[in-house]
Design a protein that fits this description.
Protein name: Adenosine 3'-phospho 5'-phosphosulfate transporter 1
Family: Belongs to the nucleotide-sugar transporter family. SLC35B subfamily.
Number of domains: 1
Helix content: over 70%
Shape: globular
Largest sheet: none
Radius of gyration: 23 Å
Keywords: Membrane, Signal, Transmembrane, Transmembrane helix, Transport
Structural class: mainly alpha
Distance between the termini: 38 Å
Order of helices and strands: HHHHHHHHHHHHHHHHH
Mean pLDDT: 79
GO molecular function, one term: 3'-phosphoadenosine 5'-phosphosulfate transmembrane transporter activity
Number of helices: 17
InterPro entries: EmrE-like, SCL35B1-4/HUT1
Length: about 425
C-alpha cells in the first residue's frame, strides 16, 4: 500500500536526475512514467470489470444453466467452443508445400516478393516511426513547430487497421473453427499494447539504431520467459548465441561517439523503456504460442489480439480525453496524418507478409529476411537522421548479426537432424 505513493513522490527526483530536452518534456503530464501509470489505469478500468464478469459466469456454471440470445456470445467469450488440440499444427494453416522442379521459378518469384514486401513494409515503418516521435510538425522560420507526444494514439492507429485487415481476411478466406475463449486474447493484447507503447516512447530518449539492437537481443528474455511460462529446455548453441548477442549489444551501448547530440544519447529512461518493451514482447510471443494449442490460424490470432487492443486503447484514450486532442493534432498537420496512416498500413501489411512468408518458406527463411531488415534499418536510420556509430559500436553490431545468423544456421541443422531421428526419439524443444 505504501509503494505507489512512494513511487509518485519520487517522480520529481527521477526526472531531475536526467537531462531531458525541453521539447521532449513540457510538463509533468509528458513524463513517461506518469503516462505509463495513467494508461495502465485506463486499461485496468476495462480489465477489472471484465475479470469480475468472467468469474461471475464461471461461478454460476453458466455453460450449463445459461439461456437466451446472449448465451452464444458469453459462451464464446468466456468458455470457448472446443477443447485444446493435442498438436499445435492442427489449427494452423495447411502445411507449406515443398517446391518442385517445375515450379522453381515461381517459388523464386514468391520468395523475392516476400522479401521485398517485408523489407519495404518494415523499413518504411521504422523510418516513419523515428520521424513521428523525434521531429516536429508545422515548423516555420518564426515557429519551431510542435511534436506529437501521445504514443498510445499511434498504437491505436496501428491496431484498428490491423483489426480491419484481419477481419476482412477471415471473412473472405475459410478459417479453422474457432475454439479458444475470447478473453484469453486479452493477455497477449495487453502485453502487446504495452510493448508497442514502450517502443514508441523509447525513441524520445534513445537512438533508433540502439532500439534495433535491443530488439535483436530479445531472444534472451524470450528464452527466460520460455523457461518460466512454457517450461522449455534449450540447446547449448542457443545459450552461446544469446551470450554473443549480449556481448555485441553491450559493446554498442558502451561505445561513445564524440559528436553525439541530445537526440542520440542513451538515457536511463530509454534503457528502462527498452527493457519494458523486451519483457512485454517476450510474454506476448510465449502467450500466443500457448494459445496456438487451440485450433486457430495466425490471422485468427491477429484478429483476436487486435480486437482487445482496439478496445483497450480507445477506452483509455477516451477516458483521458487524448483521442480528441490527437485528432485535432491530425487536423492541424496534414503531414502527420499521412505519416500516421502510412505507419498503420505498413504495420498491417507487414503482419500479412509475415504469415505468408512463414507459411510458404518456413521460419528459417523468414528469420534471415528479418535479420537483414534490422541491419538495413540501422544503415538507413544513420543515413537519413545522421546517427554516428563508432568502430567499437560497429563491431558490436557485427557480433550481434553474426550470432543471429549462427542461430538460424544451427536451428536449421537441428531440424534436419530431428527428421533423421528413429521413431520414439524426440529432440530438445527449441525457442
Amino acid at each position: 500500500r505504501f509503494f505507489i505513493p512512494l513511487l509518485l513522490a519520487s517522480l520529481p527526483m527521477m526526472a531531475a536526475g536526467e537531462e531531458i530536452a525541453p521539447a521532449l518534456q513540457d510538463s509533468w503530464g509528458d513524463f513517461w512514467l506518469f503516462r505509463f501509470f495513467v494508461n495502465a489505469a485506463g486499461y485496468a478500468s476495462i480489465v477489472v470489470p471484465g475479470f469480475l464478469l468472467i468469474q461471475y459466469f464461471k461461478r454460476r456454471n453458466y455453460l450449463e444453466t445459461g439461456r437466451g440470445i446472449c448465451f452464444p456470445v458469453i459462451k464464446s467469450c468466456v468458455f470457448g467452443s472446443e477443447v485444446k488440440s493435442v498438436h499445435q499444427d492442427d489449427g494452423s494453416l495447411p502445411p507449406r508445400a515443398e517446391p518442385t522442379e517445375s515450379s522453381t521459378a515461381r517459388q523464386i518469384f514468391k520468395l523475392l516478393l516476400c522479401a521485398l514486401g517485408l523489407q519495404f513494409s518494415y523499413l518504411t515503418w521504422g523510418v516513419l516511426q523515428e520521424r513521428v516521435m523525434t521531429r516536429t510538425y508545422g515548423a516555420t522560420e518564426t515557429d519551431p513547430g510542435e511534436k506529437f507526444k501521445d504514443s498510445q494514439f499511434l498504437v491505436f492507429m496501428n491496431r484498428i487497421l490491423a483489426f480491419t485487415v484481419a477481419g476482412l481476411y477471415c471473412a473472405l478466406r475459410k478459417q479453422p473453427r474457432h475454439g479458444a475463449p475470447m478473453y484469453k486474447y486479452s493477455f497477449a493484447s495487453l502485453s502487446n499494447i504495452l510493448s508497442s507503447w514502450c517502443q514508441y516512447e523509447a525513441l524520445k530518449y534513445i537512438s533508433f539504431p540502439t532500439q534495433v539492437l535491443a530488439k535483436a537481443s530479445k531472444v534472451i528474455p524470450v528464452m527466460m520467459m520460455g523457461k518460466l511460462v512454457s517450461r522449455k529446455s534449450y540447446e547449448y548453441w542457443e545459450y552461446l548465441t544469446a551470450a554473443l548477442i549480449s556481448v555485441g549489444v553491450s559493446m554498442f551501448l558502451l561505445s561513445s561517439a564524440p559528436n553525439r547530440t541530445v537526440s542520440t544519447v542513451t538515457t536511463f529512461s530509454g534503457i528502462v523503456l527498452l527493457a519494458g518493451y523486451i519483457i512485454f514482447d517476450s510474454f506476448t510471443s510465449n502467450w500466443q504460442d500457448a494459445l496456438f494449442t487451440y485450433k486457430m490460424s495466425p490471422v485468427q490470432m491477429m484478429f483476436g489480439v487486435n480486437v482487445f487492443s482496439c478496445l483497450f486503447t480507445v477506452g483509455s484514450l477516451l477516458e483521458q480525453g487524448a483521442l480528441l486532442e490527437s485528432l485535432r493534432f491530425m487536423a492541424r498537420h496534414s503531414e502527420f496524418t499521412a505519416h500516421a496512416v502510412l505507419l498503420s498500413v505498413c504495420s498491417a501489411c507487414g503482419q500479412l507478409f509475415i504469415f505468408y512468408t512463414i507459411n510458404q518458406f518456413g521460419a528459417a527463411v523468414f528469420t534471415i529476411i528479418m535479420t537483414l531488415r534490422q541491419a538495413f534499418a540501422i544503415l538507413l536510420s544513420c543515413l537519413i537522421y545522421g546517427h554516428t556509430v563508432t568502430v567499437v559500436g560497429g563491431l558490436g553490431i557485427a557480433v550481434v548479426f553474426m550470432a543471429l545468423f549462427l542461430r538460424v544456421y544451427a536451428r536449421s541443422r537441428m531440424k534436419k537432424r530431428s527428421k533423421k531421428l528413429p521413431p520414439g526419439e524426440t529432440p530438445v524443444q527449441k525457442v
